[in-house]
Amino acid sequence: MSDTVTRKATWTSRSAFLMAAIGCAVGLGNLWRFPYIAGQNGGSAFIMVYLGFVFILGVPLIMSELAIGREGKLSAVETMNRLIKRGHHPIWKIIGWVSILVPILGLSYYCVIAGWSVEYIFKAALGNFTGVDAAGSGAIFQEAQDNVLSSVLWFSLFLFTTVTVISMGVKNGLEKAVKVMLPALFIILVFLAIYAMSTGDSAGAVEFLLNPDFSKLTPRAILEALGQALFSLAIGVGGLITYGAYLPDDVSLSKSAGIIAIADSLVALLAGFAIFPIVFEYGLQPGEGPGLIFATLPIAFGQMPGGILFGTLFFLLLSFAAFSSTVGMLEPIVAWFVDKGKSRIKMAWGSGMIAWSIGMFMVLSFNVLANFRPLDFIPLYEGKNLFLIMDYTVANVLIPINALMIGLFAGWAMTNEMAEKQFGFAYGSKEFTLWRISTKYIATIAISVTVLVMIFGMDVVLSAFNAVIAFF
After folding, report:
1. How far apart, in Å, are the Cα atoms of 255 and each of 27, 194, 205, 294, 334?
2. DSSP 170-219
3. Domain enclosing residue 131, as ranges
């Protein structure tokens, strides 16, 4: 492919890009994962560390991903190939290929959870949660997982809706979808937060979310906060590189990255104010785990005033957030094929079928293949079924590794000329220096530690760290 090739597709406006990029970042990581991770790690102290990582590391890395994409103006794979032709080492191809692998694998299991969200819209609207206790709510969730036909239906519906939108193109599909869904997401979330704070235990929620207790902040919680920041901002997923390729040269990457980080953090915090007043009002546990959304909160929805409306809107919100992310997952894959001259429609449906085929194993891992644990001989995957293996591999291995590679490229390989061109910062300026230090040193070290913990375990890494300290 000639280095002079430029991408034909562009965003129609800066606001359209920002909505798409925010939608790519905002997803189940904010509304499903963030509340229970924060609950397990003590609330506000964890949140403060998480926000610190978002702005100290997240913003520079978002800037870097967007800069890489806009410099190459192609899919992640072809962008890295183009930069390699300009003199960069071939090892950086890893960024391109992982930016394709993560979305296709992530889409296969992400749509399973998203499918549950859509199914639960109807369960909430029909009053299925009215009067249920913990056992009843757990039984409803277990039934949703056990019913193979229903699970396949909702999973397929969500995935192929995503495929349909992406097949329509950047302007007619992706842009139009996020222009509707993202404003709706914020409106619903603000309404739910106000309603929850006015009817639930607002004092308990404020205490939990805004009054930090740093005694609860363990090394594990700090690393969880870093991992959540990467996961929540969609760093290393591939979507931001692809979205950056569609971006005109006159759009400020630093301002855009800041807006994305602020919007993403705002959604996570609003989700906390929508969920924790209900959790504390009805005596639920904030650190309940992944089942907090689907097994625990419905208990409260069944008891609270207006619970049918609240529950319906909550799962509609969850579905919108998931959809804004899944379109951001599929686009990098399809963009790669389009760069090779393939039909967008055919490649969208072809990629969708690949994700669907892999995803069928994810669906079946909750029922037919529930006890199939093929990687028990590997300590990292011991006791994990296919879904949990995929989730752990994508969220805790591939995304941090790709984020690390992006940080290394931005900090150590990206030329000053490229950085000045993309960011508009003069070499040696305060802004340029802060960006370079963050990507070159802080992000590299922090993400490296996270990757080591994910691979070797917290105890091994802490022991090694203590040994190094003792040696010196």
Report:
1. 21, 29, 31, 36, 28
2. IIIIIIHHHHHHHHHHHHHHHHHHHHHHHHS-HHHHHHHHHS--GGG--H
3. 14-471
Is 223 within 8 Å of 459 (Cβ atoms)? no
State the 10-residue block means of pLDDT for the chain, 472 residues long: 56 91 84 78 87 92 96 94 94 96 94 94 94 87 93 96 95 91 92 92 90 80 82 87 92 94 91 88 73 83 89 92 92 94 95 96 94 90 92 86 94 94 92 94 88 77 76 71
For 349, residues 6+ apart whose C-beta sits below 8 A from its C-beta are 163, 167
Q: What pLDDT, on a 0 to 100 scale, did the predictor assign at position 1?
A: 44
**Backbone dihedral region for residue 234 (phi beyond 0: left; psi -120 to 50: alpha; all else: beta):** left
**CB of 10 closer than 8 Å to CB of 248:** yes
pLDDT of residue 288: 64
CA distance 81 to 75: 10
Task: Give the model's pLDDT for residue 3.
Answer: 52
Helix, strand, or coil (residue 472): coil
The pLDDT of residue 175 is 92
The pair of three-digit structure tokens given for residue 269, joined into one six-digit string: 């915090």
- Picking from 212, 226, 217, 208, the residue whose alpha carbon sits closest to that of residue 50 is 226
Nearest to 295 by CA among 161, 75, 182, 136: 136
Rounded Cα gap, residues 470 and 44, in angstroms: 32
Q: In sequence order, what are the residues at sequence separation of 6 or more whose Cβ sits closer than 8 angstroms to the Cβ of residue 172?
A: none
Tokens found for residue 288: 């309940």
Q: Is residue 3 part of a domain?
A: no
pTM (two decimals): 0.90
**Interatomic CA distance for residues 197 and 295, integer angstroms:** 21
CATH number for the domain that contains residue 30: 1.20.1740
Number of domains forming the structure of the chain: 1
Q: For the segment 265-286, what is each residue's pLDDT rounded down to a tens digit?
A: 999 899 889 888 988 888 877 7
Phi, psi values for residue 237, rounded to 5°: -85, -30
Closest to 466 in 3D by CA, of 221, 222, 219? 219
User: In sequence order, which residues have a C-beta less than 8 Å from that of residue 255 and are 6 or more positions away?
Assistant: none
* In-domain check, residue 2: no
Is 439 within a domain?
yes
